[in-house]
Amino acid sequence: MIRLTFMTDARRVIGASTPEGNARRFALLPPALPQVMSGLYAAAAVAVGGRSVAGAAQPVLSASTKFILTTDPDQAAAGELAHAAVCANYIDLIERFRDSEEELNVIGGLTVFRMFLHHADRLDIAETSAAVPGDLVFDDWVTAGFDVTVVDEWEGGRTLRASRPEGAAARNKRSAMALYDVMFNWNRPRDAARLFLGEEYRQHNPHVADGPAAFVEYFERMAGEYPGKRVTFKRAVAEGNLVALHCHQHWPGDHDYAGIDFFRFDDAGRIVEHWDVLQVMPERSANPNGMF
Length: 292
Ligand SMILES: NC(=O)c1ccc[n+]([C@@H]2O[C@H](COP(=O)([O-])OP(=O)(O)OC[C@H]3O[C@@H](n4cnc5c(N)ncnc54)[C@H](OP(=O)(O)O)[C@@H]3O)[C@@H](O)[C@H]2O)c1
Fold this sequence. Notes:
Layout: E1 2-9, E2 13-15, H1 19-27, H2 33-41, E3 45-49, E4 65-69, H3 77-80, E5 84-87, H4 90-97, E6 104-106, H5 110-116, E7 122-128, E8 136-137, E9 147-154, E10 157-163, H6 168-185, H7 189-196, E11 197-203, H8 212-225, E12 230-239, E13 242-250, E14 256-265, E15 271-280
Parallel strand pairs: 1-6, 1-7, 3-4, 3-6, 4-5, 11-15
Antiparallel strand pairs: 2-8, 7-10, 9-10, 12-13, 13-14, 14-15
Helix pairs in contact: 6-7
The structure holds NADP nicotinamide-adenine-dinucleotide phosphate.
The site of NADP nicotinamide-adenine-dinucleotide phosphate has 26 residues, from β1, β2 and α5.
């Protein structure tokens, strides 16, 4: 089981990109927040980013296993925390904890939340009523297909819980977004294929050949040619064994595209067929509505 825990405000701001910005931010947080967060953080195992390790030092996590996500094998911070280990490949944690009774609580920051979002079973969110200054926005979860309920209200904010709806359609939606996320945003098409594709993968995009190996080869090439490319999901619809995703693709140095992808799933929940239509994002429009 994978859970994400974070604090945010109604604008979905979760942090600041500078230490000064974060200090300003912390000074304005409601006094009740540390206690609320400490209740939500408690877990036998947590995952934390190399730039957010301070969050794993709190007393409630003193006995927890801490996986510090960093691609730097000499990450010094791991040595200063009890029960800490460096993890250079977040996919290893996903494979270990998804579909497991064991719980992994992902406690930030922004990059790490995005790594795990589409694999998360639950989000625990402390939301302040007042806006708190900051420039790091985490809003991907709003359109990721969770059911959100209010579980508690406290002075200065409330606690939300976002859970996955039951059933194959919801599971397929989540897998389609996760496939795309791992392959496109994290540039790990081999991991994406391992986690989500069937042995056969029928392709209708004319640039890519059939099968998982061709999918990996094509997107490894795209990862090299377009570092920093990014997809965000605007809408996801599931019916029967099909999922449709309405996406914004950003290709640095090239056009942005509005796209619709269709994925077909087999009975085991693996993706076995793909279609897409892509439209260059126009510079002008006859209406004020934008492409999404
Ligand atoms: N509101 C909240 O609840 C909350 C909670 C925590 C943090 N935050 C905020 O989040 C911000 C920090 O977020 P951030 O995005 O800058 O950093 P981050 O999420 O804390 O750290 C990202 C880490 O991911 C590692 N990484 C990149 N690719 C990886 C891969 N494939 N496998 C494993 N690890 C990988 C990076 O490694 P390298 O070290 O090699 O670059 C980096 O250390 C701060 O402003 C902080 O205050 C907010």
